[in-house]
Amino acid sequence: MTTVALLPDPSTPLARESARQAFADLLDARTSEDAVADFLIALADRGETSIEIAEAARALRERMVPIDAPAGAIDVCGTGGDGHHTLNVSTAVSLVVAAAGVPVAKHGNRAASSKAGAADTLEALGLDMERAGALAEATLRDLGICFLFAANHHPVMRRITPIRRRIGRRTIFNLMGPLANPARVTRQLIGIARPDYAPLYGKALEQLGTEAAFVVSGEEGLDELSGAGPSIVVSIGSAALPRHVTPDDAALPRHPLAAIRGGDPVYNARRLRTLLDGEHDAYRDAVLLNAAAALVLAGTDTHLADAASRAATAIDTGAAARLLDAWIAYA
């Protein structure tokens, strides 16, 4: 007879061991779906602690399908769910940063709340998702970029996904994706849609042994550095940025958020291709700002303005466009 585990009472913060066991039971299907839903809702209502976020991520890491990555590889990823439906900034940033010489293990998924997630847009650009997944380790090694489709690397989430869909609101699982990169990167630029959660999220990263990370959030609730105004930055480990960053810090102009509003995958793919072909607009500046932060994180530059110039060169020389073409041809 299979014993059904009882999840702890989430009305008060869970101790580390209780949180670790709870997420092990949850991911290993030792709890009923109704109990999982109730537990996740109660956690969200109370507000997750850094310990709970870290232990949830640790449990997911222990069950993921990993790949090997070259030294210095980073990830650029957002938690999603910000409701602004912008163009795919982190996807474009990944291409630009990789073209500038920093290996990028891009972790992502299809759209959950937006019209086009990273996987949707890359597919519309011509990347074969199945082959890109199968060859991820090889393209990361040979080209300096890969796409780690979450569904391929986190099989335990197949049971959780329908529960999350039924809940229909943010839960701790919205925070876990960037913390469980299958390439086991130790340097990450992570966008989070809730500025008030940035310090808490930073503490979770520290508990997970992150070498260096920037947790960023536009003050309008954007899960990336905002091209419209101030963003909050929490620096972890060996890299550092000011606590508040604006486009001015990277010598870039400001644009209203509406200027980078996205659409369906075909529209977003067209805009990304136009960006790589040299179009100067609000999308380019948003990508340059976030790419600059990623390059500072990787250690290629110290100042955002210098890093933004390096990112612009990766676009203007055609290096980023050629990388995308090589990736599509490889996969």
TrEMBL record:
- Does the entry feature the keyword Transmembrane, yes or no? no
Single GO MF annotation: anthranilate phosphoribosyltransferase activity
Q: Which domain of life is it from?
A: Bacteria
Q: Which GO terms describe its cellular component?
A: cytosol
Report if keyword Transferase is assigned: yes
Question: Which residues are 5-phospho-alpha-D-ribose 1-diphosphate-binding?
Answer: 78, 81-82, 86, 88-91, 106-114, 118
Task: Give the residues the record marks as binding anthranilate 1.
Answer: 78, 109
InterPro entries reported for this sequence: Anthranilate_Pribosyl_Tfrase (IPR005940), Glycosyl_Trfase_fam3 (IPR000312), Glycosyl_Trfase_fam3_N_dom (IPR017459), Glycosyl_Trfase_fam3_N_dom_sf (IPR036320), Nuc_phospho_transferase (IPR035902)
Give any single GO term for biological process: L-tryptophan biosynthetic process
The Swiss-Prot or TrEMBL record lists the needed cofactor(s) as: Mg(2+)
Q: What sequence ranges are listed for the domain Glycosyl transferase family 3 N-terminal?
A: 13-63
Q: Domain named Glycosyl transferase family: which ranges? A: 73-320
Q: Which residues bind Mg(2+) 2?
A: 223-224
Q: In which pathway does it act?
A: Amino-acid biosynthesis; L-tryptophan biosynthesis; L-tryptophan from chorismate: step 2/5
Catalysed reaction(s) here are: N-(5-phospho-beta-D-ribosyl)anthranilate + diphosphate = 5-phospho-alpha-D-ribose 1-diphosphate + anthranilate
Q: What is its EC number?
A: 2.4.2.18
**What residues does anthranilate 2 bind to?**
164
Q: Quote the record's binding site residues for Mg(2+) 1.
A: 90, 224
Q: Which UniProt keywords apply?
A: Amino-acid biosynthesis, Aromatic amino acid biosynthesis, Glycosyltransferase, Magnesium, Metal-binding, Transferase, Tryptophan biosynthesis
Q: How is the cofactor bound?
A: Binds 2 magnesium ions per monomer.
Q: Which protein family is it in?
A: Belongs to the anthranilate phosphoribosyltransferase family. In the C-terminal section; belongs to the anthranilate phosphoribosyltransferase family.
Q: PANTHER family, alphabetically?
A: ANTHRANILATE PHOSPHORIBOSYLTRANSFERASE
Record text on subunit structure and interactions: Homodimer.
Per the entry, what this protein does is: Catalyzes the transfer of the phosphoribosyl group of 5-phosphorylribose-1-pyrophosphate (PRPP) to anthranilate to yield N-(5'-phosphoribosyl)-anthranilate (PRA).
Name the chain's protein. Anthranilate phosphoribosyltransferase
